[in-house]
Fold these 2 entries.
Entry 1:
Amino acid sequence: MNGRWPGFVKCIAAATLCTACFAGCAGPEPAARSVASPPALSEDELRTARGQLVARQALPRLAVALEPVEATDLIAQADGLDVQEQLKEDGFRGAIERTFRGRSRTITGAESRVLVFASAAGAASFASFLTEHADLFFGGPSAVTPMRPGSPNGVVIKPPVCDCPGAYPLYVGIMAEGNRVMWLQVTGPRASRTQLRALWSAT
């Protein structure tokens, strides 16, 4: 998985959240990439997870890629947080993501993920873990609010914008649904909670 996220992982892992790094575009999403699934997931589970990702047509001006997400990818994003043990306790089985990257006046980068766990309790536990440790996982004091006012389902996490040229705000949505954790993050000049919620429904 090394080198798969040329800009984004470097920013997250270093806790800089320099979201301008999304400007490096990936190639178009080839149909054959669907076979590169997390080994622990069955074809039916993978098909269901893909159907819950943000549709590739949702951001037509951005390049799209579809790839699996491994435990090591999640561990690499956290600084000083024992994600590995948490994933093990919660029964993490595998995940898949669709990434969008490119130049735009609104959204320049997005990652839509579906994380699959052995049980609904495991998914809920990991979603709570991300919410409770947002500062460590996303690299700084983060504002955590309900996805929708008064709703207990899902949260929006807004990490701090890094102090670097061209940095854009980042918004992350986390929601447990059955034995899955739905994860969507967006960045760009006009990234906002409204943009995040609009993309969330574009499956």
Entry 2:
Amino acid sequence: MKPITWLRKFVNRGDRGYPVATLAFYGPDDKKASKAVLGIIPSKDSEAQLHKWFRESPDADLRYDIKLQNTWIDIIRREGVRSVAMLEEINGCPHEEGVDYPLGQVCPTCPFWAHRRRPVDPPAALLTAVASYEPDQWGALLAAAADREELEDTWEEWNAGSEKLIRELEKRGIPWVRVPLDVEEINQFCEEEGIPNDGAARANLAARKAQQNER
């Protein structure tokens, strides 16, 4: 199997919990990627560990560099990643606002991206599903969850972690969608699938609902 095919198949599995990997590409225009950024988020309370690569040739497109693709796969496997979000289209300028040029301004070396929306028309299939719950259902979820010891005691604590994940996805330019889940809906899904009500099951249900909503 080609490494890019392996990555695409992993992405299509949907959100299966942590660790999460995000893979995004940047370039002076929307034709070729001159920069690749792989982020590893070990848990919902941790910061992303970023790995960056830059092309050596102006004609290279890092998205389709087989050696690099295998490097990303090696890192994903080494870190025990369970979910991958990859935006294969160019996600904007490779230079960093506030680092390579002043905040609030456009990059002087990449005029193509001036005032353009980023990413450019991302495909819906690459949306990362982020499960959400109503505060008044948190107690019922804790009572039904097979992984109760891994969940926060309060909805507020859980929500803070969820919002942090969303900020990380937005920082990396990864499209996402919030998917509301109901406890009865989760229990029914798990019963039909013959699986425990745990993080993997809830992530699977959220990913399925996101895909159905996009059809």
